[in-house]
Each structure stands twice: as structure tokens, then as C-alpha cells.
Amino acid sequence: MTAWAEINKKMKSIWDEFIYGGHLLSFGLMCMVLLSAILLDVKISFEFLAVIYLLTLGPCLFGRYVDLRSDALTNPERSRYLSKKANRIPYMIAICIVVIVSILTYGHKPMMVLFGIGLILLSFFYDLFLKGITKKIIGFKNIFVGLLFSLLIVMMGLYYDIQFNLSFLLVFIFIFIMTAMGAAFSDIKDIKSDKEEGLKTLAIVLGHKRLIDYLLLTILLSLMPIFIGVYIGLLPVYALMLTLVLPYNMFLFNESFRENKNSDFLYAVLFDSQLILWLVFILAGKVLT
């Protein structure tokens, strides 16, 4: 094997770990918390961002570990990659939890330890027990995911003792609606496996085309709190840069209908990375205003 081939192999290994190992999603959620802090004028620390990263990485790995068999149908590349390291995943999850508890304990935040462990257990409970509720309640998964991700913003508020006022509520609503919408869009790739499990996701109930129409309206609805916050002076003007989520998602929605699309790249890379783009939009707006 040539040196160049060895480098390519190593780079692919790093890329696969970043995408399939849950790091892209966790990094994106960390960026989501950071942009919320910027909008609410909260000075956030590196150690708290590290907690958010690990707090989402552990449950993400757990969910993918539990779904390894069903993922073979709709996420073959991810399933193949994680199957090779399946024996190590429980240890990686345990390390995430230990580091989280250590950081929060060292920072004299015992209540945050309980909150963080609560979020982890809530995520675990969904994968082990609560997922079946989606067989009875349409869209339960989407609401649950939106709420779980939004609670990261609540954790930030508790950690820094900020006021849970109207500006916080407006940001919370935007995050909740957008992440719930994101979960619904991601379900498109899982229609086959979810049907086999008898789940009633919005993608199955509405169908691909009607779901996209619904999601476009949902994005417009999610932007209303941002418009209101800027109009009444509770959020900075550069918060309006978040309106760029609309054209970006329209691009993703159009791509989802393309017959020769790379589904893995669309859902695992382009869609998950939009959380990072939210932060980029906000930082660009802050610099320009």
C-alpha cells in the first residue's frame, strides 16, 4: 500500500468516526447551545460546552447501538461501521458519563449532575421503552426529540442562573420546533424500517410529499418567535440571520426527492451539519451588524 493510499484510508476512518460515531450531531448540538447563549447574551464556558458535547454523544451512541440491526436496512454504512466497534460502544458511553459527572462535580454543580443524568436516562428510556408509544401516538418521536434537545437550553439557563423570561422562551420555542421538524425529516430515510416496527412517524402517516409541505410551514412557524423577539427588542437584530434556515432546508427537501441522491450524505452530513450553520449564520450577522 502506498503512502497516499494509507493517508486516504486513515482520513476515511476519521471521517466515518466523525459522522457515524455521532460526533457531527453532538458538535452541532453544542453549536446550537452556543448560538442560544449568544442570542441571550450569556457568557458560556468551554467546560459547559464539553458537557453538552458528551451529554449528547453518549445517548447518540446508545441509540445507534440499540438500532444496529434495524439500521442495516436504512443506514447500511453506519450499521456496518458501528458493528465493527460494537463491543467498545458501552465503554465509550460509560466514559462520557464519568467525564460529565466529573466536570459538573468539580464545578460544584450537584443539581446539574442530576439534571444531566436525568437527560441521559430519558434518552435511554426512549430507545428501550418509550419508542413503542409512537405506535399509538402519531409523531411522538418528533415531539420527544424536540423536547429533549430543547432541554439542553434549559440546562444552560440553570447552569448560569439566567432568567427564564420571554426572550428565553422565544429562543426555546425556535429550538424546539426546528429540532422536532428535523427529527421528522430524518424519519424519511427510515420509512421502511419504521413501518416494519409498526411506528406511526409523520413520514409514514403523511407520506414524503405531504410531509415536506408540512415541514415548510413548520419552519415558517419556528421563525415567528425570532421575528417577534427582534421586533420588540428582546433579541438582537442579527437573530434574523436565522431566516437562512428556510432556503437551506428547501434545498435539502428538494434533494430528498432526487432519485440518484446519496441518502447517507444527505441525512447524515448535510442535514445534521445545519446545526453548525445556525451558529455560522448568527456569528456572521453579529459581525455585519
Give the tally of structural domains: 1
Q: How much is the radius of gyration in Å?
A: 19 Å
Distance between the termini: 52 Å
Q: Secondary-structure element sequence?
A: HHHHHHHHHHHHHHH
Number of alpha- plus pi-helical segments: 15
Strand residue content: under 5%
**How many beta-strand elements?**
0
Pairing-aware structural class of the strands and helices? mainly alpha
Query: What percent of residues adopt helix (DSSP H or I)?
Result: over 70%
The whole-number mean of residue pLDDT values reads: 89
* Low-pLDDT sequence parts: none
CA-based shape: globular
Q: Largest beta sheet, briefly? A: none
Task: Please explain how this structure is put together.
The protein is an all-alpha fold and 289 residues long. The protein has one domain (3-288). Helix content is 77%, strand content 0%. The chain contains 15 helices and no strands. The protein has helices at 3-20, 23-39, 46-66, 68-74, 76-84, 89-106, 110-128, 140-159, 166-186, 191-197, 202-206, 208-231, 245-257, 263-271, 274-288. α2 (23-39) crosses α8 (140-159), α3 runs antiparallel to α6 and α4 (68-74) runs antiparallel to α5. The longest helix has 24 residues, at 208-231.
Brief digest:
The chain is built from 15 helices and no strands. With 289 residues, it is an all-alpha fold. It has one domain.
Task: Please give the structural blueprint.
Blueprint: H1 3-20, H2 23-39, H3 46-66, H4 68-74, H5 76-84, H6 89-106, H7 110-128, H8 140-159, H9 166-186, H10 191-197, H11 202-206, H12 208-231, H13 245-257, H14 263-271, H15 274-288
Helix pairs in contact: 1-5, 2-3, 2-8, 2-15, 3-6, 3-7, 4-5, 6-7, 7-8, 8-9, 9-12, 12-13, 13-14
